[in-house]
Design a protein that fits this description.
Bound molecules: adenosine-5'-triphosphate, magnesium ion
Shape: globular
Helix content: 25-40%
Number of strands: 24
Strand order of the largest sheet: 6-9-10-3-11-12
Distance between the termini: 44 Å
Length: 510
């Protein structure tokens, strides 16, 4: 098929008029996707639009209520993921479903472990894994316990696993949410090689810039429905967004109405105990300030937040809150001091999947709803309503189990949970990861409003545009240390200069 024009390439996969309902939600309503041989097809839509559900119908996790799925012209209905894999369809899921205590290679071959004389053949498993990693240029020890790896490395293992099955159809559901730029480029190279072998790839991502780099065609969904399919070259980012949200988005960032005031938190020489960690980090956070933390992935920004919050051990340094020394030796201690931490890996570490949205929303502020020893349901319910409304969580009801929400909507509930604790200092680790363009604006608005109320916010982000869009000042971390601080709007001659300075400082100690 090489050399053929896009429109002449035949369809490898056709999903036509797919319908799927869950109690209270019509998740797919005549959804449609046609993937051509040897192409990358981006599947776009807001949080809850039905992207993951459509892919799960293909992969045999869900059974469609109606519609037709054809692979290479033949109608199929995979009964399970195993069945899909056996027929050349492979998927990297939005959530990482890994067994954290097991090592990398066991996670790679789970369900298809190589056997010899009735026993698992560890030697073969090691060699096969090593070979795949070498082919893909991935530098991870197959014997490492997976729970010890960073989220980005864990995501790479999932990608390698999917690629290793030699599928003809590969589904990547937000595979790059935690990857570094270098890793993303690397993944794109792998995808380009697969495409030359006529593999068809369905690619889901909320990172707009990626779509134009990698996708041949784009399908946009809204509210479970097919909206449009077009060659990427015919669509600007603005046009894709308009199709997704059904309105023009003029501004990506709300007006900044917060004004930083007096010092709130003074940190000096913050150093973590166990490597890799942060070293000798000093800064001041003011009331009403949004302080960004920039840096490359691996620059220990997450470690800094955890060391401040007491979830990682601090070996040295001082934390002063309004002039008085505090300890923050544990999460409980820090919460009493008015801190909240939104973790980077919130879907893996922050969610009680079997709990309702209400439970997940109020769990960290539960004391506030108890009067005279009794849990006040009316207060609990109004708190849950507040989270759903203010974060625009898409759900049939607050009693719905959180595991049934789309990935982005789960994140919104967890962010809402921390807001209910009414913290004075918020530590946010990648607060908009996995959130769609429209909902990002609302999260920025919330952060700015909180700052306006006088709260202090420290926000780690890998998105330069959002750091420059809402932060008052930006600390740049480099290899665990402070490479420098960018005070906004003064010394660097506007946004372009600030961006350049951030990149330079991020590389200072690398
Ligand atoms: N197992 C389920 N039970 C009930 N509702 C579900 C289930 N799975 C998905 N849904 C609902 O179907 C809708 C579509 O969800 P889906 O996960 O497909 O969205 P998405 O487009 O992947 O969003 P995101 O960008 O946030 O990942 C949502 O309203 C979601 O709550
Ligand atoms: Mg999804």
């Amino acid at each position: 098929m090489r050399g053929l024009l896009l429109a002449d390439k035949p369809f490898l996969l056709e999903m036509l008029d797919i319908e799927k309902s869950f109690p209270g939600v019509k998740a797919l309503d005549h959804a449609q996707l046609q993937l051509r041989y040897g192409t990358v097809h981006a599947l776009m839509g807001e949080n809850g639009a039905g992207k993951s559900t459509l892919m799960k119908c293909l992969f045999g996790i869900y059974h469609k209520d109606a519609g037709c799925i054809k692979v290479e012209g033949r109608e199929i209905n995979f009964t399970s993921p195993r069945n899909a894999l056996d027929n050349g369809v492979s998927m990297v899921h939005q959530e990482l479903n890994q067994i954290l205590r097991r090592n990398v290679m066991e996670n790679m071959w789970l369900g298809r472990l190589p056997m010899k004389y009735g026993l698992v053949d560890h030697k073969k498993m090691y060699e096969d894994t090593k070979k795949i990693f070498t082919d893909l240029g991935i530098d991870i020890n197959p014997r490492e316990i997976i729970g010890k790896l960073s989220v980005s490395k864990r995501q790479l293992v999932e990608i390698a696993k999917a690629v290793s099955s030699n599928a003809k159809i590969l589904v990547l559901d937000e595979p790059t949410s935690s990857l570094t730029e270098e890793e993303v480029n690397h993944l794109f190279k792998i995808m380009k090689t697969l495409v030359t072998r006529d593999v068809g790839i369905i690619y889901i991502s909320h990172r707009m810039d990626e779509i134009q780099k990698i996708a041949d065609e784009v399908t946009v969904m809204r509210d479970g429905k097919w909206v449009a399919t077009k060659p990427t070259g015919e669509l600007s980012i603005g046009a894709i967004i308009k199709l997704m949200v059904n309105r023009e988005i003029e501004n990506f960032f709300p007006p900044k109405v917060n004004v930083p005031g007096e010092p709130l938190l003074e940190c000096t020489g913050i150093t973590g105990k166990y490597m890799p960690t942060c070293t000798d980090v000093s800064f001041t956070l003011h009331k009403g300030e949004i302080l960004g933390v920039a840096g490359l992935v691996g620059s220990r920004r997450t470690e800094l937040l955890n060391t401040l919050f007491g979830t990682m051990t601090r070996a040295g340094g001082e934390i002063k809150l309004r002039g008085a020394a505090i300890e923050n030796r544990s999460a409980g201690d820090s919460m009493k001091n008015g801190f909240a931490l939104l973790t980077e890996e919130r879907r893996a570490t922050g969610i009680f999947p079997e709990g309702s949205i209400t439970f997940n929303a109020i769990i960290s502020s539960i004391d506030t709803y108890i009067t005279a020893g009794l849990l006040r349901n009316s207060k609990v319910n109004s708190a849950a309503d507040q989270v759903i409304t203010s974060m625009r969580v898409k759900t049939p009801s607050k009693r719905t189990h959180i595991k049934y929400l789309s990935g982005g909507n789960q994140q919104k509930v967890i962010l809402g949970r921390w807001l209910l604790t009414n913290p004075e200092i918020l530590l946010l680790d990648e607060p908009t990861r996995g959130i769609d363009v429209g909902a990002k604006y609302e999260i920025y608005q919330l952060i700015i409003d909180l700052a306006k109320q006088g709260k202090g916010i420290i926000m780690v982000s890998s998105e330069m545009s959002e750091l420059l869009g809402i932060c008052d000042n930006i600390i740049v971390m480099s290899n665990g240390r402070v490479g420098g601080v960018v005070k906004r709007g003064v010394e660097f001659g506007g946004i372009a200069g600030e961006q350049e300075t951030i990149l330079r400082l991020a590389a200072k100690y690398v």
